[in-house]
């Protein structure tokens, strides 16, 4: 009823038309052939600037959270989503096999649309609902704590957890839970912001103030800066880890972060 009234309101119609024209003008202005978004197919000369500018990000060269031109003008996808999708689309047969079951933690919109489109046997979206914000999550997202995933062992063929573990104090426990629910022979993509300028992961759980976390870790809700020993943490729970670093070079039009590697964590048959 309310939406219908808004649609018939002359003022709202003018605002809607203005916004639509503004969007179309931005797409025309940014049209080019340097990039092609793998989600929406939009051809762009550049992406929109996103990311944080805190000093520690540049000092430690934290890959995955610094300021960069990374958001698609048309669909809003980011380089982090496009990295995962580019790997799945070109390096696996996942989208050709609807018999698979997939768990997607903190699901990104563009990536979720692709999973829903391919109609897998089961596609579960989960996130840890912030108290008081339960209604803010899409209806298809379940309240799932990565430290206690409510599914049996060996349940999912694939788990996607893209830039989540840096928010979790007990990250190794979260990795262990993902390993538990993953089927033998399955794989997980576990991306995190990471610095190769530090020798090992830096974390200090006594830092709880949001401003101090920004200063220490580069973002107000991060609890660590991962270092090269991130792979060791993944291996400690049982994963066999493949690190792929050439996707940006192999697929230059996808607009990936050239410095971001992708971590493919496999549960090898026992």
Folded structure, characterized:
With 270 residues, the protein is an alpha/beta fold. The protein has 9 helices and 13 strands. The strands form 4 sheets. It has a 7-stranded mixed sheet with strand order 7-6-5-8-9-13-12, with helices on both faces. Strands 1-2 form a two-stranded antiparallel ribbon. A two-stranded antiparallel sheet has the order 3-4. The longest helix has 20 residues, at 10-29. The termini are far apart. Mean pLDDT is 91; it is low at 1-7 and 12-16.
- Backbone structural class: alpha/beta
Profile the largest sheet: 7 strands, mixed
Helix content: 25-40%
Shape: globular
Rounded Rg: 20 Å
How is the quaternary structure best described? single chain
Low-confidence stretches: 1-7, 12-16
Give the SSE order as H and E letters: HHEEEHEHEHEEEHEEHEHEHE
What proportion strand? 15-25%
C-alpha termini separation: 58 Å
| DSSP E strands, number | 13
